[in-house]
Amino acid sequence: MELIERGSVTSPAGFxxxxxxxxLKKSGxxxxxxxxxxxxxxxAGMFTRNxxxxxxxxxxxxxxxxxxxxxxxxxxxxxxxxxxxxxxGLQNARHMQSLAATAMRCRIEQVLVLSTGIIGVQLPMDKIxxxxxxAAADQHPDGGMAAARAIMTTDTRPKHLAAxxxxxxxxxxxxxxxxxxxxIHPKMATMLAILTTDALIPARTLRALLIPAVNHSFxxxxxxxxxxxxxxxxxxxxGATGISCARGEAxxxxxxxxxxxxxxLAHLVVRDGEGVTKFVSIRVSGARTxxxxxxxxxxxxxxxxxxxxxxxxxxxxxxxxxxxxRAGVRFDLQRAALxxxxxxxxxxxxxxxxxxxxxxxxxxxxIFAGSDFSVHLDLGCGDAxxxxxxxxxxxEYVSINADYRT
Amino acid sequence: MELIERGSVTSPAGFxxxxxxxxLKKSGxxxxxxxxxxxxxxxAGMFTRNxxxxxxxxxxxxxxxxxxxxxxxxxxxxxxxxxxxxxxGLQNARHMQSLAATAMRCRIEQVLVLSTGIIGVQLPMDKIxxxxxxAAADQHPDGGMAAARAIMTTDTRPKHLAAxxxxxxxxxxxxxxxxxxxxIHPKMATMLAILTTDALIPARTLRALLIPAVNHSFxxxxxxxxxxxxxxxxxxxxGATGISCARGEAxxxxxxxxxxxxxxLAHLVVRDGEGVTKFVSIRVSGARTxxxxxxxxxxxxxxxxxxxxxxxxxxxxxxxxxxxxRAGVRFDLQRAALxxxxxxxxxxxxxxxxxxxxxxxxxxxxIFAGSDFSVHLDLGCGDAxxxxxxxxxxxEYVSINADYRT
Lengths: 406, 406
Prior knowledge:
Two copies of one chain form a homodimer.
Chain A: E1 2-3, E2 15-20, E3 32-47, H1 55-66, E4 71-80, H2 86-104, E5 111-118, H3 125-137, H4 144-150, E6 159-167, E7 170-179, E8 192-197, H5 203-215, E9 221-222, E10 232-237, H6 248-271, E11 279-287, H7 290-302, H8 304-311, H9 317-325, E12 337-342, E13 347-352, E14 355-356, H10 361-369, E15 372-378, E16 384-391, H11 395-402
Parallel strand pairs in A: 4-5, 8-10, 9-16, 11-15
Antiparallel strand pairs in A: 1-6, 2-3, 3-4, 3-10, 6-7, 7-8, 11-16, 12-13, 12-15, 13-14
Helix pairs in contact in A: 1-2, 2-3, 5-6, 7-9
């Protein structure tokens, strides 16, 4: 697998994208994008597990259930989320789907629709209509980078990636764009990820490949513990290369590349998290079950006290231990151990058998002063483990979220 | 029930308190206090549900199990929590109990011990010994206010209350001091509350009275979702008035006063929460069960996005709806309604049947601009309800917690 420089959703063959500025964002930046495939695509999607979902989530679930192998386009607006908008909201989402189908000359059920932004506001359909027409006219085979910008909300930079997979039968490409920097939490908070590939993969297989990739990536990151109402990961495969990745080694190579790419995208989201200045890997091992490990890692990753200690470069391991103690998982503190380390380098043990080790405070502080570091907690009561990724909780996070609408 | 001005743990008859500065706090402020009753007390205690507990929690559970009706003293230090300190930590807690017993001329099992502050550091027993001797020499029948100061950590002000209850047989008094301003969360995070009374109440009844009072007060507040390892609420009854509150109307009056006082104390803790500038009541009604209502209210109360919106005086109800949607409680958004209001005044409806009402944004903003306001979410699917209290998430919170040890 080889990363493609400036790669995006339009790196795989047969995809194009166009953008438009239709006036949904106060900033006056591009707020609409239309991704298109010249061939029918198989499609798979995973959505938020929040009880309250946006109109587009309802619509996409319906569209994918009816048609998962002749998809042609994804229309996305940023600025307005179309959530808590009742029957009118769902009607508007359908209208947007239909307008996009007209603009791209395909059938309604061949279009998926995504909306991200403020909750409780109806889409101004006149603006959406004009935007879709403009985005259809703007289609470029290298439009993916602009598309990555057009789906941004509080993101500070566009996030896009692509990779080429060499197979005995030739090479296929996976491309992606992603947005989301707040409300990020396992179960895919305010995050939209769009993945494309020119490999040939049946819809059912595509879905089977997407689920574990998302579970190992987007479902292992947390910025603030808030799960959004509109999260979606969509994957389109247009088969433009004619190369099948449905079985055997090709499938394995595709699966590995997809998970790798999704993990890289998830890390990009954390690094661009609202106010985030540190990227922290939290590994919990020695748990009885994977679910236990995940529960503890997540509790640490969302603890405001832990995250402010990260922000202050303060190796205050007591807060990490205290957070793990309230995760609802039984363990014996006398068997617990804790290490920290710079990125993937050697680690410094802070706690053994539940009590502090004889380490130099300055060594620990130096690790936490870095912009990338890891925390490893071993519970000493089993063999299961997991890793989640998070950032710090900073003044900037408060500023961004206290002033979002004002 | 009548509040006593400048009331505290020494307002009930027969109690005294003394403080000392033994050098556990960098600030050089008083860090040790010794509360004493001239008569044997019945005693009840409730402690953190964190899996990881401080040595004093272990010790107090043991002491209360062995002796709940001849208690004489509570020794408390601030600055060091004596948590994650292994066998030495428990030994030190026992040593502190024994030193306090010697200083106050009572038996070891007549002393309860509390420690609050930094995790993972051993108590300097020489300093504790000197401090206990000084605090024993400092005993005053009006020492409760100084005691409230001596148990503070990041608190910005001492928190103390007392109330007199008029009964047909005479009047009894309940007094209290409390500390805690971060790591505050249901299940009693980093919070120490000491309550005293001169009523005559058997130990078993005392415990039966304490549990609902704590559940309706301290277990309904949240600053940052972090549950501490050392939380404790202790209640001593020395019977100095000779007036029994064990049965009938006297018991009812006592129970009501105790719950009222505990709720007032809990509110004081929220108002003095780390960086808190707003006091917010979150009422969730129309839930299927009380547990469901509590889960939704808690998720709202701990959501960083909701709490930063409070900080920004931004009536961003979308975040409140989104938070309730991820609480793990099933409800139908189309039946949900949301109101906000200034303190206990009339309320403004923002959401009806899951969609925004036609209200003036400036009216909503004015309510959120206040320092006291309420949020009321009705889920429309049952009769159960609850109220929890929380604050906002501010720059100041980040500053306090990023720089706590440095």
